[in-house]
Amino acid sequence: MSERGLSSWGRTFPDRGRRAVPASRFDWSEKTATDAFLPYGNGRSYGDSCLNHAGTLIDSRRADAVLAFDAKTGLLTAEAGILLSAITRLVAPQGWFLPVTPGTQFVTLGGAIANDVHGKNHHRRGSFGCWVRSVDLERSDRGVSLCTPSQNAELFKATIGGMGLTGLVRSATIQLLKVPSLTIDETTTRFDRLADYFDLAEEADERHEYAVAWIDSLSRGTSFGRGHLIAGDHAATGDSEGIARPPLLRVPFTPPVSPLRGWPLRAFNEAYFHKAPSGTSRRQVGFDGFFYPLDRIGQWNRLYGPKGLHQHQSLVPFADAKAVIGELLACAGAHGQGSFLTVLKRFGAVESPGLLSFPRPGYTLTLDFPHRGKKTLEMLAALDAITLAAGGRINPYKDSRMTAETFAAGFPGWRALERLRDPAILSDFWRRTALVLPPEAVAAWPADDGFRKGRSSLPA
């Protein structure tokens, strides 16, 4: 086993996860009764769901081979450590693309499954797990099992969105999406206040494959919550190579104080808001700029300073979303902390097969903050309280500090995952949430999350 400086993307836990062993050399027979392991992808989770300070990480990054690809059907089988960027480079020349992709292409296939990631087209395609056809899962207590929606189905559902706790994903088969090109026809609508966004968002979801909004978290008064609604569709002709451009720049070091606060942040938001002309504008853009704008800045997480960053992603049901989203933005402002990357998205009704998947019908708001100690943690707790009061939840794989009670209130299905967890696998997140909850503290909560009724299945 080697000493590796593995961390999470938020960098709030820089010294956790130093013990690691490559997945290609990992053998369960070498474990002892006291060993605790955790599969590790590319470390793009923001919090501690990918960390295991009291055990060993199973580093999957070099287990990245493509095992099969059918250019006629779009079925791809690959080892869990392959990056989404590598999949795109392979399949794009054949007219295929990832059906769901998060905001970075530097996520492993196993990580995308473990976190059941979502993208800008949840309203049409659901989460990543909707497109997983099978998983080869290796466990400490039963070896390798083929898990599909019909074979070892319970374990299949727990693995999707299970944050790596059900076993080591050795390989997986996914269904890709047929597209005419990777060039995107982008439509940007500038709105002057948050209240204008919601009608625009519903219409954008009906008309476009992709839709997401950037919000100026620092705007106040009549311009409170102003921003851009950015929608997109694959162009009829254009790029078919799937090769992303190299980074424009790299952040060479971590500054002693984050520049993403105060007047620099206000200046950036002001300039970015006026970058889009008033009304609606259209242009064609490359796929990497549309899906992965931050990938063009290498090690951008360093800009948040030496203490790292917190990303707070909440989800609230449709019923009270207009008021609650405004309350969340106002709460951050009242605590004197602005968010550099403020993203607002409308989730649709496509149900994920995952047991603990984050998306459900409603609106999701993502906020980023430099870690400034106690005052930041107090603000994040206040954001949690607003979210839970509205019947919402906090994204666990973006989190590094929510309480066990907050997690359980948003994900009552955690007990089913605990029952299916590999006994030799643990994460720091699971230690500080699920494993500290006494049975009597959650006895009154429902066994299921209660949010699955009425959702449609994946469109054909």
Automatic annotation (TrEMBL):
Residues covered by the FAD-binding PCMH-type domain: 12-179
Entry keywords, A to Z: FAD, Flavoprotein
Pfam families reported in the protein's UniProt record: FAD_binding_4 (PF01565)
SUPFAM superfamilies noted in UniProt: FAD-binding/transporter-associated domain-like (SSF56176)
InterPro entries linked: FAD-bd_PCMH, FAD-bd_PCMH-like_sf, FAD-bd_PCMH_sub2, FAD_lactone_oxidase-like, Oxid_FAD_bind_N
Flavoprotein keyword on record: yes
Name used for this protein in its record: FAD-linked oxidase
Source taxonomy: Bacteria, Pseudomonadati, Pseudomonadota, Alphaproteobacteria, Hyphomicrobiales
